[in-house]
């Protein structure tokens, strides 16, 4: 009897990891990512300095920024980065929390895998625990609405604590609250708040503008620098002569014909400008280009004009001033114009800007961020975006929880009770999930230089005594009522973090085979030949 030929199914440069090795490999990668950002969690978290290939430097403790800039290669580690991005897009804050939580869930799963418990059973226990955690969080959450200014201020301050803006935290929190209140109709939306960064002055010189600020200057020096009680036309067609769609030749046999041709172009541009003048507009914001001759006519009519404005900015100006964006100049009417108390060109730092301000009840506003260096301004922007995201999430959901590790311990305590009601090995998964939640208060203590075991023992005792908002004050090193201490976060930060972390953990645990191929090296092989390679 002849020996059986081995069957080759993968190209020779493929790498394959199977079973336990694959799981260990994935869990190790995810844990390393979590360890990287873990030291940045909380008010006493440290910052990371990230230097890219072009020597650009970013200094931050924002989880998602760190992970995006790290250019992670490992496929499982990339999944953890995706979780942080989801948290950023959904809420804007809690990116470090979600990554640390995912890392701990995988670490606890690894212990169960060592006890020969099947990954499917672990994931089932995790799924049941994650669903129960959502229920518990909704039960313990407190209600909030847009008029609860004190709670909203505390949410903003909590989001910005430890982000390098301590010196101006109060002022920035007030700016964020005013901005959100101004743009909220039925629902708050971050898109209606424009953020302009300018290096110079200090963080406390940041301000809220009741209108829109654009990094554009007027197109002609003869135009007025400042206009009051303005009527603004928003135009998204070019104030230029259109080229023909098809190639066309014009034969000119006489110089007079050329002159009349030029005159005709000039008249067409003049009639475009006359349309704007007839509508009584004294400010023009154009999304496209403006011909030099049209600029001249606009300047003669004392019309402040800017061009090549982004579409997103056009929409914001429309919301701030009540103007309509016009796609056909012939249709421009007086009622399509927006109003602003003041439009002016002004230097901010070393750049000419246009301020469209003193708008009546604007539904889009601008926050101008100042700071001593580019790195400071960037970090202030990240802090403000986190604060705005938290305020908006709190208003839209109408629910908040106290922070400082309190909700995690409360959910963990109740999940342990819940795990006892489960039959079979799933209860081990649910229990591991409950214990994983303790990583948040534990990390907060470690980053503040406190003893995590002492802090966890004390905080658990208080929660067993029905103090649901007992949390860690990292500044005094004591367990306090975090609601009274003003450490408040939107419920959505917690629910989204638990949802995302548990989903990615379940996904990673179900992988038992990794096949990595670096391109097919057998493309040129004659058909019918078995490719050499791995079995």
Shape-level CATH architecture of the largest domain: Orthogonal Bundle
Can you identify the CATH superfamily of the largest domain?
Answer: GroEL-like equatorial domain
Structural class: alpha+beta
| CATH fold-level assignment of the largest domain | GROEL, domain 1
Global mean pLDDT: 78
Number of helices: 16
As a percent range, the share of strand residues is 15-25%
Count the strands? 19
* Cα shape: globular
Low-confidence stretches: 520-535
Task: Report the major sheet.
Answer: 7 strands, mixed
Distance between the termini: 22 Å
Number of domains: 2
CATH level-1 class of the largest domain: Mainly Alpha
- Helix % is 40-55%
- Rg estimate, integer Å: 30 Å
Structural overview:
Helix 12 (406-419) packs across helix 15 (452-464). The chain has 2 domains: 18-143 and 401-516, Orthogonal Bundle (GROEL, domain 1); 212-361, GroEL (3-Layer(bba) Sandwich), CATH 3.50.7.10. The strands form 6 sheets. Strands 7, 8, 9, 10, 11, 12 and 13 form a 7-stranded mixed beta sheet that branches. Strands 4-15-18 form a 3-stranded antiparallel beta sheet. Helices cover 46% and strands 17% of the residues. The protein starts with 13 loop residues before the first strand and ends in an 18-residue tail after the last strand. The chain is built from 16 helices and 19 strands. The longest helix has 24 residues, at 255-278. With 535 residues, the protein is of the alpha+beta class. Residues 520-535 have low confidence and may be disordered. It is globular and about 95 Å long. Strand 2 and strand 3 form a beta hairpin.
């Amino acid at each position: 009897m002849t020996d059986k030929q081995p069957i080759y199914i993968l190209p020779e440069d493929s790498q394959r990891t199977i079973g336990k090795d694959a799981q260990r490999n994935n869990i190790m990668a995810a844990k390393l990512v979590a360890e990287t950002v873990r030291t940045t969690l909380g008010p006493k978290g440290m910052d990371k300095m990230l230097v890219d290939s072009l020597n650009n430097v970013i200094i931050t403790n924002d989880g998602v920024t760190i992970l995006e800039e790290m250019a992670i290669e490992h496929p499982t580690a990339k999944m953890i980065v995706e979780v942080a991005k989801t948290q950023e897009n959904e809420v804007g804050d809690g990116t470090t929390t979600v990554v640390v939580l995912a890392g701990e869930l995988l670490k606890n799963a690894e212990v169960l895998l060592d006890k020969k418990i099947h990954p499917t059973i672990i994931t089932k226990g995790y799924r049941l625990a994650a669903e129960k955690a959502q229920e518990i969080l909704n039960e313990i959450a407190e209600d909030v609405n847009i008029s609860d200014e004190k709670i909203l201020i505390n949410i903003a301050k909590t989001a910005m604590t430890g982000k390098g803006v301590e010196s101006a935290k109060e002022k920035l929190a007030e700016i964020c609250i005013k901005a959100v209140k101004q743009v909220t109709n039925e629902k708050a939306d971050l898109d209606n708040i424009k953020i302009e960064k300018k290096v110079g002055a200090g963080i406390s010189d940041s301000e809220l503008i009741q209108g829109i600020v654009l990094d554009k200057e007027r197109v002609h020096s003869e135009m007025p620098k400042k206009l009051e009680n303005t009527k603004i036309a928003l135009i998204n067609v070019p104030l230029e002569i259109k080229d023909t769609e098809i190639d066309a030749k014009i034969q000119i046999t006489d110089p007079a014909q050329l002159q009349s041709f030029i005159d005709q172009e000039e008249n067409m541009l003049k009639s475009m400008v006359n349309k704007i003048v007839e509508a009584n507009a004294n400010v023009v914001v154009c999304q496209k280009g403006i011909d030099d001759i049209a600029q001249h006519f606009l300047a003669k009519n004392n019309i402040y004009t800017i061009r090549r404005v982004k579409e997103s900015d056009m929409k914001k100006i429309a919301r701030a001033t009540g103007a309509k964006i016009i796609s056909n100049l012939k249709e421009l009417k007086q009622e399509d114009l927006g109003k602003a108390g003041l439009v002016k060109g002004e230097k901010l730092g070393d750049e000419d800007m246009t301020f469209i301000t003193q708008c009546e009840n604007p539904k889009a506003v601008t926050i101008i961020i100042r700071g001593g260096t580019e790195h400071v301004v960037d970090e202030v922007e990240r802090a403000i975006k986190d604060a705005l995201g938290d305020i908006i999430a709190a208003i839209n959901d109408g629910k908040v929880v106290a922070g400082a590790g309190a909700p995690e311990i409360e959910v963990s305590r109740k999940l342990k009770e819940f795990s006892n009601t489960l039959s079979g090995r799933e209860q081990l998964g649910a229990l591991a999930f409950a214990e994983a939640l303790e990583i948040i208060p534990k990390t907060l203590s470690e980053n503040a230089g406190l003893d995590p075991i002492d802090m966890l023992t004390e905080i658990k005792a208080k929660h067993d005594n029905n103090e649901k908002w007992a949390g860690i004050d990292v500044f005094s090193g004591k367990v306090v009522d975090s609601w009274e201490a003003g450490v408040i976060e939107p419920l959505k930060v917690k629910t989204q973090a638990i949802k995302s972390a548990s989903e990615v953990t379940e996904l990673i645990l179900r992988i038992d085979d990794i096949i990595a191929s670096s391109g097919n090296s057998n493309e040129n092989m004659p058909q019918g030949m078995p490719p050499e390679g791995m079995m």
